[in-house]
Structure formats: C-alpha cells, structure tokens
Design brief:
Layout lengths: L25 H16 L4 E3 L9 E4 L11 E11 L3 E8 L2 E11 L2 E6 L5 E6 L1 H14 L10 H16 L11
Antiparallel strand pairs: 1-2, 2-3, 3-6, 4-5, 6-7
The structure holds nickel (II) ion (NI).
C-alpha cells in the first residue's frame, strides 16, 4: 500500500468529470486500498479518485473510523438509484478544502449501486453520515465540491482563503493547527 498526495483546491483537476471504470481489476483494487490508506492517514471519512489526480469514478468511505473496527466501503462507478423526498442539513468539510466547513442540504436517505473491489455489483441503502459522505464523494466525480452547494459569497470567501494559503506556499499539512 502507498500513501498518495491529496490535491488542494483551487485546482482544475478537482473540476473534471471522471470516466467510469470498465471493470475492477487488480490495479483498480490496489488504487482503492491506497486511497483508503491515504484517507485514514489524513484523517478523513471519504476520498474520491480525482482528489489524488485520477479522473476515474472511484470512491472510498468509512464514516466511523474511530468508533470500533474499520468499516471501509470501496466503490467503483457508484450510482445513486433512489433518494428520499426528505432532505437533511449537515456540516461538511473536505480533504481538498482543509479547515473549511459549511452546512449543506442533501437528500436524507439514498440507495447506491456500485462495483466493489472484487468487481461484484452491490447495492446499499444509506442514511445519516454514511449517506452524506457517499453523496459528497460522488459529487467529486463530476467535479462538484461541497462549496458548490453553498452561496457564491461564502464559496468565494473559502476559495480566496485557500488561494492565499497556496500563494504562501503552504499546504494544510504544513500550517499550524488553528
Ligand atoms: Ni471532498
């Protein structure tokens, strides 16, 4: 396994549309494991392939890595096939937008179809944090960030802060804790 570098916004690679995986072969399964290791190390609860510079429809999630045993889910070509009518508002952050958080409204429950790391088609229903994380990561696959769901005023403020950090040559991992 290998730890990968996470791309920080603003970056055009985070805005690209990802292509589907033909089938989950050994290389894709290895990439999923590397993404998971990178996510746990960050630490985070979800990571999408474009965040490590791979424009493919692959995500990994584990909404509760600190509570009990790890329960990772690796998904290729995830597709939301049902959403509840009821929405919920949840605070979101993103490993590509370090230290930035805001409230995002999304469907409360979803049903997702995907290929797992063994190229087997799966379907799961998710609610709560798992639902939020999966929707957030699937957004990444079409170049959508959580800030695209909030007001342009707030989005502008967040992106200006991140741009400033980049100009200073800093990354999140090198700055002092807030
Ligand atoms: Ni994200």
């Amino acid at each position: 396994m290998a730890k990968l570098k996470i791309i920080i916004a603003p970056d055009l690679r985070l805005k690209s549309k990802c292509t589907p995986v033909e089938s989950v072969d050994a290389a894709t399964a290895r990439l999923m494991s590397d993404m998971l290791e990178t996510m746990y190390d960050a630490p985070g609860i979800g990571l999408a392939a474009p965040q490590i510079g791979v424009a493919k429809r692959i995500i990994v999630v584990d909404p509760a890595p600190e509570k009990g045993p790890p329960r990772p889910i690796k998904m290729a070509n995830p597709e939301i096939i049902w959403t509840s009518d009821e929405n919920k508002i949840h605070e979101e952050g993103c490993l590509s937008l370090p230290r930035e958080y805001d409230m995002v409204e999304r469907p409360d429950k979803i049903r997702v179809r995907y290929l797992n790391e063994k190229n087997k088609q799966q379907e799961i229903e998710a609610d709560g944090l798992l639902s939020v994380v999966i929707q957030h990561e699937i957004d990444h696959l079409q170049g959508t960030l959580f800030v695209d769901h909030i007001s342009s005023l707030k989005r502008g403020m967040i992106l200006r802060r991140l741009t400033k950090q980049k100009k200073l040559g800093r990354t999140y991992y090198e700055t002092e804790p807030a």
